[in-house]
Amino acid sequence: MEPHTDATPVPPLDSLPLPRPGAQPEPPTGHTTSTADRGSFCLAVCTCGWSGPARRSRDLARKDAARHTAP
After folding, report:
1. I want to staple 33 with a disulfide (CB 3.0 to 4.6 A). Which of 17, 18, 65, 71 is the partner?
2. Where is the segment annotated Disordered (predicted)?
3. Would residue 59 be called left, alpha or beta, if left means φ above 0 and alpha means ψ between -120 and 50 degrees?
4. Where do the H-state alpha helices sit in the chain?
5. Which conformational region is residue 46 in: left (phi greater than 0), alpha (psi within -120 to 50 degrees), or beta?
6. In this predicted model, what pLDDT tens digit does every residue of 13-40 receive, in sequence order?
7. Of 14, 52, 17, nearest to 33 (Cα)?
8. Which residues contact 42 (CB under 8 A, 6 or more apart)?
9. What does the alpha-carbon distance between residue 44 and residue 60 come to, in Å, rounded to a whole number?
10. Strand pairing partners for 43?
């Protein structure tokens, strides 16, 4: 079985900076979604901090991301 190479690499969620207590949230700059592999699961993640449910199907994770960015 060939490895999946179409996924966009994203940093681990625990490496993202945490907001400082009392700091004002940054204004939204749009949503950029991608998929991230976690073991045998795949999940959709967004630059706004949203993440979809863990899925065994990458296609379903991509659909979750598309639904998140849909108007």
Report:
1. 65
2. 1-37, 50-71
3. alpha
4. 58-69
5. beta
6. 666 666 677 766 555 567 889 999 989 9
7. 52
8. 7, 35, 36, 54, 55, 56, 57, 58, 61
9. 9
10. 36
* 8 A C-beta contact, residue 42 and residue 7: yes
- The reply to whether the predicted model has a pTM over 0.70 is no
> What φ, ψ does residue 56 adopt, rounded to 5°?
-85, -20
pLDDT at 1: 56
Structure tokens at 40: 């045998």
* Both structure tokens of 50: 């949203």
Work out the mean pLDDT of the chain and round it to a whole number: 80
Task: Return the closest-CA partner of residue 69 out of 55, 43, 50, 54.
Answer: 50
Name the one residue in this structure whose structure tokens are 């990458």. Answer: 58
Contact 52, 64 (CB under 8 A): yes
